[in-house]
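pasting for ref
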Amino acid sequence: MTAHDSAIRPSTIAVKSGTVLAALGVVSFSLSFPATVWSLDGFGPWTSTGLRGLLAAAVAALALTLGRVPVPARRHWPGLLVVAGGCVLGFPLLTTLALQVSSTAHTAVVIGLLPLATASFAALRSGARPSRTFWCAALAGAAVVIAFVLQQSGGSLSLADLYLAGALLVCAAGYAEGGRLARQMPGWQVIAWGVLAAAPVLAVISAVALAAEPVHLTVRALTGLAYIAAVSQFGGFVLWYRGMAAIGVPKASQLQLAQPLLTLGWAVLLLGETPAAAAPLAAVGVLACIAVTQRARS
């Protein structure tokens, strides 16, 4: 083995492991919408959002305490607040509201735009400059999603689509900031401090929502809430941010193009939904862009 080979091999292994971690994060997130629908079986949208965040904050606080992790430096807190606002508050609430007035399949396909939004925020925030091929493939995936939305809604945007548009913007900002911070601190600490930063707001939301929204405790609702709290709001992000730190925000974000297709499968298996014929076609079309974006060199 030459010195050159030994220098390349660790880098290759890191990229491969980062891709695996990011992919596992995507699989975790693909179950989030079906689990959210389950939680709505017994909780209102505001209650579900508040409780999932508070439960995740409890897990995060325990992990940080056991790990004796010091409080992040002051320079990290602006980014952590973006993570809190986008990934802990904004995205969960807006997508939960959307799922009340739209199907899981429709919501999943629209969220296929998230990789493009994330890559755009990353380029603006960190100065990343993906290649032209990368952008062409990402835009092609976005065009498929937009065509699907317009076809499903008769050429206009629905209330659910407006919720999802807001969710895309705030989550993309949170993903991009989280991926940047994960290069400076362990990924699990990024989301842990993010959910703790949002905890005071989540506590207020939970208290008000529990008084205003009816609660019906069922096994389905509690299972859904447990998943979106422990996995969607914390565990999945640990994998996701570690993967982003290893392979870069733009490339990792494009792996999420597979999420709509995965979520469609879960919607059929777990919720008994029958997606419109255009939904799987749109998801497959978006998925086809992954091969191009993953081969495009930044």
